[in-house]
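Hi F.,

I've been meaning to write this up properly since the lab meeting, where we talked about keeping a consistent format for the predictions we share between groups. The idea is simple: the sequence comes first, exactly as it goes in, then the structure tokens exactly as they come out, then a line or two of notes. No screenshots and no reformatting. I'm using this chain as the first example so we have something concrete to point to.
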Amino acid sequence: MDDSMLPKYVKIVEVGPRDGLQNEKQPIETTDKIALVNALADAGLQVIESGSFVNPKWVPQMAGSEAVFAGIQRKAGVSYAALTPNMKGFERALEAGATEVAIFAAASEAFSQKNINCSIAESIERFAPIMEAARASNVPVRGYVSCIAGCPYEGAIAPAKVADVSQQLFDAGCYEISLGDTIGTGTPAQIEQVIDAVTRSLPVNKLALHAHDTYGQALANIYRALQLGVSVFDSSVAGLGGCPYAKGASGNVATEDLIYLLDGLGIEHGVDLQAVVDAGQRMCDLLGRSNNSKVARALLAKCRVD
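Output, unedited:
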């Protein structure tokens, strides 16, 4: 494919403060979460998933999301998003001042049952009151589709199934559909098949890709999606957030690595790479873990040598 067709600008949706931290077992101070969100906004990221309004019994790390939203220094032009799986969560997010919310469905029936204890159809039905309330409050809703390439229970997922669920979320009122390679098994050929299937009915400018790097394919998958016209990508600072279905495997693609790819392709994104590297390393130091971003590790090592 002719790379002259690549998008001129890419929107990066930073999911580190939510998706990156939600599975951490050790307590993280609210002040440190707030500092991370503020640093990412200062770096130029325009959409930051800042918390999740779920039952704290299921995701204890997100129990302080109200305090995070109350404490951040809001910047003009930055959307502070929240994951809201149900109506109670949406109401909490609205009260906390989330500027957009996200809902999620799966392309796998088995994953839907295991993850949220209902069928795909039932999950989308449950979102109807959220969509109605969001329209009344003029709050944009983003839709996630999990398991677009593979499922830990079902294996390979048919692209037509991903297209069907994406269409349902779009028809329900989601302004953007984020296609999630939840277990990171996707390859560029699979991602192409999924995007081709979804774009038979949805415009490509309504799609985003949420790539995991479990098998080291995330950047290759992103590059293929770029060639196919996708211009919105989810990523997590320092690659925070492992894959819960592959023990010890990396999860979210690192924001730093995505930025480096975009810079190499001459695609604008408006984000300061070094500022993101610094923000990610500070959080890694607090967590006592190594940085999952290859770009961050290389730049930090270069600084030490220099």
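Notes:
The chain has 13 helices and ten strands.
The beta strands are 11-14, 47-52, 79-83, 100-106, 141-146, 150-151, 155-156, 176-180, 207-210, 232-235.

If this format works for you, I'll send the rest the same way.

G.
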